[in-house]
Amino acid sequence: MKKDESKAVSEIIDELSNTSHVQVRSSTELAARVSEAADDEDEKRIGKGQGPLRRRTDCRAVRNAPRSLTLTPWQVIHAIGLGAASARQGAGRGLAEHWGSLRYIQALEGNQGGYLQLSSEGRDLLRFYKATQSGEIGTGFASLLAEKLVRSRYPDHSVSVIPSDVALKAGWTLRSASGAGPLPEPLQRRPHFFVEAWQPGQPSKVLLVSSKGTHSTVQQVHKQLSTASAHVDSVHIGPYGTVPYLLIGTEIPKKESLALHILEAPGTTALSPHGETSEADLDLALDQGNRLADVVGHAEREGTTIPGFQVLPESFAWFSIVLARTEAATLMAFTGGGKPTAQYLTKEQGRRHFQHDVHADTDRLRDAEHRIHDVDFVGTDHIYRLNGTRVEAFSGLEKSLYMHIHHGRVNEYRREVHELRGQWPSRSTSKQWSAVSIRADGTVLAIRLRDE
After folding, report:
1. What is the H or E stretch that residue 352 is in?
2. Which residues contact 127 (CB under 8 A, 6 or more apart)?
3. Tell me, what DSSP letter sits at residue 288?
4. How does pLDDT run across 255-296, given as a tens digit for each residue?
5. How far apart are CA 261 and CA 79, in angstroms?
6. Judging by DSSP bridges, how do beta strands 245-251 and 205-214 pair with one another?
7. CA distance 126 to 219
8. What is the 3-state secondary structure (H, E, C) of 407-430?
9. 370 vs 16, 373, 406, 442, CA distance in Å?
10. Can you give 66-99 as a three-state secondary structure string?
11. Whose CA is closest to 310, among 324, 327, 325, 291?
12. Distance (Å, rounded) from C-alpha 51 to C-alpha 65?
């Protein structure tokens, strides 16, 4: 290992904790451009004999949208890793996917104006996985922006961002039976997240998020957001077309600063239990559901159904449990996966992928404890090389919260983490770690150079 290589890596690690800004753009003009892009797409589809996409058409500029999002690159990597932890994307699984977020350690940097942009390394990597990079970075920024927006609207609530595919699999099969052909198109296009604003003992408020990312021009953002409006039309909570949603597109230019484009359909959907006086028991393990992927359509077409996923009021208590336990699975997967994660998942959600503590990248799981900013965390260390230099990353959960989730106590986890909201340390470095991110859910992601 050469001295200049070590210095370069130390600079890379240190820059992960630098605060930068990302522009947020939302306007009536953006909504109009997205509507035009949707019309253009449908014309092309009709010309091919496919018919127009079924989509939500009620999006508009976001009220009181923030002008920018202030964060560190390490917070973005934390969000990407947390979102992928239970999703079983690609050939990897569980923890191996979560650590895939570390590929972006060299991808983002702040420019002289204090705005986030792709680094030279990030630009060089475009030719290898351009679509993957834009998608994963886009979902990271989208989850952070959606969380910030919902938290500002419900300041007395906790906010959880939950992968929608994992949650939906608790009740529906998201794949065709062998030999049955592809799923109907509306079932193939799904939102990326459920955002849940919740208080212990109270009905949750839920909205959908569909996110996109592109390295192309703003015109491509308009096209992507028009497609995103079809993704949110596949899921309905309560009556058809009433659940609020956010459409978020991340523009990742090759040389300019990043920008987030966002539209919304405002409203409130509360998971008030139907005819029940007691709250849902979040500790209740769920059996695999086998629901019909049908949605009751518009009121004027009473009795008709269309392909999609719908949660009606009589299932609100069930869906509250699904969301909470999917979040618990994500938290456990983030700290190390294995059997503590499997207890929260149904068969279709991928329980078998977490039944055994076997991962190619990590020999010992959930055996690390670190005290960061005077808070004790439990999780997993990961040692690897960055440009030839040994680096240690740690993902964990605050110790008492970890024990609740590890032992199946979701009700207690939510009660305690809700009481702790607003109390988490916000400093992006510590004495022992070069970059630190602590989220309101109690998770931590930290990184430092490792002695040879």
Report:
1. none
2. none
3. P
4. 899 999 999 999 999 999 766 656 789 999 999 999 999 998
5. 18
6. parallel
7. 19
8. CCCHHHHHHHHHHCCCCCCCCCCC
9. 20, 10, 17, 14
10. CCEEEECHHHHHHHHHHHHCCCCCCCCCCHHHHH
11. 291
12. 34
Structure tokens at 428: 């992006």
The Cβ of residue 420 has, within 10 Å, a number of other Cβ atoms equal to 16
pLDDT in tens, 14-58: 999 999 999 999 999 999 999 999 999 999 999 999 989 999 999
**DSSP for 230-267, written as a single string:** HHGGGEEESSTT-S-EEEEEEE--SSSB-EEEEEEE--
* Residue 150 CA to its chain's centroid (Å): 14
pTM of the model: 0.92
β partners of residue 371:
376
What 3-state class would DSSP assign to 282? coil
Q: What is the mean pLDDT of residues 379-395?
A: 90
Is a pLDDT exceeding 50 seen at residue 3? Answer: no
**H or E, element range at 321:** helix 316-335
Mean pLDDT for 232-254 is 96
Q: Which residue has the tokens 């059997």?
A: 339
Predicted confidence at residue 401, as pLDDT, reads: 98
Q: Residue 301 gets which letter from DSSP?
A: G
- For the stretch 403-431, pLDDT in tens is 999 999 999 999 999 999 999 999 999 99
Please provide residue 351's backbone torsions phi and psi, each rounded to the nearest 5 degrees.
-55, -45
Question: How far is Cα 449 from Cα 16, in angstroms, rounded to an integer?
Answer: 13
**Quick one: CA dihedral 250, 253, 254, 256, positive or negative?**
negative
Q: How far from 38 is each of 51, 53, 191, 356, 412, CA to CA, in Å?
A: 13, 9, 17, 45, 45
Terminal CA-to-CA distance of the chain, rounded, Å? 10
Closest CA to 437 of 373, 376, 390, 382: 373
Task: Please state, in angstroms and rounded to a whole number, the distance separating the CA atoms of residues 324 and 284.
Answer: 10
Q: pLDDT-based confidence at 297, cuts 50/70/90?
A: confident
Burial class (CB in 10 A: 0-12, 13-18, 19+), 35: middle
Chain mean pLDDT for the chain: 88
Structure tokens at 11: 């600079």
Burial of 180 (0-12, 13-18, 19+ CB in 10 A): exposed
DSSP-derived secondary structure letter, 211: E
CA angle 307, 309, 310 (to 5 degrees): 115
